[in-house]
Amino acid sequence: QIKGFVFDLDGVIADTSIYHGKAWHQLADELGVTWTEQLGNDLKGVSRMDSLELILKTGGKENDYTLEEKEKYAAEKNTNYLNLLKDMDQSAILPGMADFIRSLEEHDYKLSLASASKNSPLVLEQLGLAQYFKNRIDPSTLKHGKPDPEIFARGAEVLGLKPEECIGLEDASAGVKSINGAGELSVGIGDPEILHEADINFTDTSQVTLDNIKKAMDVMEM
Ligand code: G6P
Ligand code: MG
Q1: Which residues line the pocket of ligand 1, CB cutoff 6 A?
Q2: How far is residue 190's CA from residue 203's CA, in Å, rounded to a whole number?
Q3: Whose CA is nearest to atom 7 of ligand 1?
Q4: Confidence bin at 221 (pLDDT 50/70/90)
Q5: Counting beta carbons within 10 angstroms of the beta carbon of residue 72, is it exposed (0 to 12), middle (13 to 18) or buried (19 or more)?
Q6: Residue from 7, 182, 31, 88 nearest 39 by CA
Q7: Active-site residue numbers?
């Protein structure tokens, strides 16, 4: 029986994955690494330093910089990202997600956040959704990033629930892998080809409702 929902943030609750993408694209240009849609998708859900490493590796530049230089570039990306966030408000909540979150609370489901982003407290505040997510995971305490199951396993743990009692929601392939590895039911939101490993797929957030999830689960059990 499902008792809790573990949410990714960027690209699931808010359209901030677009801002992350823009800021990384800008840095890739500066580093002389060709930006592709594939690279943009592969970066989704991946931590700040792992993202930089992936960009450098894609451009064959993984050995070109010292740790200090890499930290400088990662900080520069974050400054650009924070600039893009400056005017963000509730209008950045993806279609239907505010209603979905409220309906879960009304039905007494427990909610937690499994975002790799160190900026997630700020984003939730700006979206006006902080009160729904009292159970969070500090990403700096994680040993492994997505696709490792650690973050979604912790998402269930902080709710006092077993993984099989939780549904995880993700827009990233790495995130769906993390949910599956943790033993939760995975809901992928976005291109079904990219998220083919998800138990349930919705092409966009407006389809994410309790009713639609229940319907999809009924079909699975047949
Ligand atoms: C999320 C986003 C990624 C981002 C990561 C770290 O997983 O999907 O695009 O790189 O968080 O975010 P941060 O805000 O800590 O740099
Ligand atoms: Mg995401």
Answers
A1: 10, 17, 20, 43-48, 51, 78, 115-119
A2: 4
A3: 45
A4: low
A5: exposed
A6: 31
A7: 8, 10
